[in-house]
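step: validate -> pass
step: tokenize input -> pass
step: predict -> running
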Amino acid sequence: MRDEALDVDLVPKAIDNSQVVREVDPRSSRDLWLLLLLAAALVGGLVLYAWPSMEIRQTTRAREQMSKERERLLEENRKLRLEKAALENLHRVETIARRDLGLVTPAPEKLVVVEKPKEVPPGARLAGGPEHGVGGRN
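step: predict -> pass
step: emit ->
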């Protein structure tokens, strides 16, 4: 009996699905939007958490760089002040003038003293000016 049950011929049945209309499940679209919103919230949270930390690191790096630059400038300023003091040393200037340039102190009768004129107070007039006919047009 068992042999008879196995002798059954299986004939494939043609199935036509052209008339089947596939409906979109509204829950799948809603779930997709919910998943995207959750992912965006997580990414936004990570960005908001990491951003201040990055700003602090950047500020610290800039502060260290400026501190090094300040130290370098202070050292350069100190060296320049020392060099200026050495160059302004009158004994050194006199030695260079005598030795390298061959300059000597002039005789007292050849000295010419130039004095700076005193300032005239505002509103004062000088005697002998153009309005008195001296040195000017009449």
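step: describe -> The helical segments are 2-6, 26-87, 90-99.
step: cleanup -> pass
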